[in-house]
Amino acid sequence: MDFQHRAGGKTGSGGVASSSESNRDRRERLRQLALETIDINKDPYFMKNHLGSYECKLCLTLHNNEGSYLAHTQGKKHQTNLARRAAKEAKEAPAQPAPEKVKVEVKKFVKIGRPGYKVTKQRDPEIGQQSLLFQIDYPEIAEGIGPRHRFMSAYEQRIEPPDRRWQYLLFAAEPYETIAFKVPSREIDKAETRFWTHWNRETKQFFLQFHFKMEKALVAPPGQAPSLGVKRPPSLITGLAPHPHSDSMPPPPPGGMHGMPPGAPMPPHMPPPGALPPHLRPPLPMDG
């Protein structure tokens, strides 16, 4: 007879658990889980009476220990009563008005056209730093509004194909249209004396001047030939007359030069003896 697979057939083996034992084991597992995750002291419906047992004030049930109460809180009855209580409180609670959003008034202006402007290119006479001076006229500017400006990258605008060699300087003031100037995409000098703005309220003119940062000049290393456009130092030998051009030289005599047969090659040009100092003149036959 096979006692191995029969309930209670083998000494030391457990039989099939009954429904009551399964429920008890389930409640124990729920109690252990609830004790780890739930603080029973913060439950508003938990109450300990004078007899030492525990009560659920929401469901009006009695429990012998904390584990039983925690198992009850995970049950269907307690969860249904919680949903009913929440629905009742939401229905009886007065409707609270929603917080008012801060409304920002959008100023609407009718555009009247583009303002007049004047652009002046300048260069510092001492250091050669380049700058631009903008003068924008706003004779009909709205009251309480001042002109605004900002630099825009070529990749922010959608009017022209982006080109990283250029950037845009924008000027805006209501009710005029926003205007932009295309300037080289070079670094701007933001020093106090190199970047300034001024708004003249009497003449309704806005001025802005900025300087480009100086680019470092490349210095040629020693021993390298100077670049084009650099004047060379004059010759150290003085007193020599410049050689005349071959077109200005007189033709040789028909019989050739003295002491040379006709048809012989011409010697290299020599300056006349009178043009050389005495110690540099070549000896002549007649001088012995």
From TrEMBL:
GO terms for molecular function: nucleic acid binding; zinc ion binding. The keyword Metal-binding applies. Residues 262-288 have a biased composition (Pro residues). Coiled coil: none annotated. It is found in: Nucleus. Residues 54-84 form the Matrin-type domain. Transmembrane segments: none annotated. It holds the Pfam family SF3A2. It comes from the Eukaryota. GO terms for cellular component: catalytic step 2 spliceosome; U2 snRNP; U2-type prespliceosome. InterPro entries: Matrin/U1-C_Znf_C2H2, Matrin/U1-like-C_Znf_C2H2, SF3A2, SF3A2_dom, Znf_C2H2_sf, Znf_C2H2_type. Keywords: Acetylation, Metal-binding, mRNA processing, mRNA splicing, Nucleus, Phosphoprotein, Repeat, Spliceosome, Zinc, Zinc-finger. One of its GO terms (biological process) is spliceosomal complex assembly. Its main location: nucleus. Residues 1-27, 223-288 are annotated as: Disordered. Belongs to the SF3A2 family. Component of the 17S U2 SnRNP complex, a ribonucleoprotein complex that contains small nuclear RNA (snRNA) U2 and a number of specific proteins. Part of the SF3A subcomplex of the 17S U2 SnRNP complex which is composed of three subunits; SF3A3/SAP61, SF3A2/SAP62 and SF3A1/SAP114. SF3A associates with the splicing factor SF3B and a 12S RNA unit to form the mature 17S U2 small nuclear ribonucleoprotein complex (17S U2 snRNP). Identified in the spliceosome 'E' complex, a precursor of the spliceosome 'A' complex. Identified in the spliceosome 'A' and 'B' complexes. Component of the 17S U2 SnRNP complex of the spliceosome, a large ribonucleoprotein complex that removes introns from transcribed pre-mRNAs. The 17S U2 SnRNP complex (1) directly participates in early spliceosome assembly and (2) mediates recognition of the intron branch site during pre-mRNA splicing by promoting the selection of the pre-mRNA branch-site adenosine, the nucleophile for the first step of splicing. This is Splicing factor 3A subunit 2.
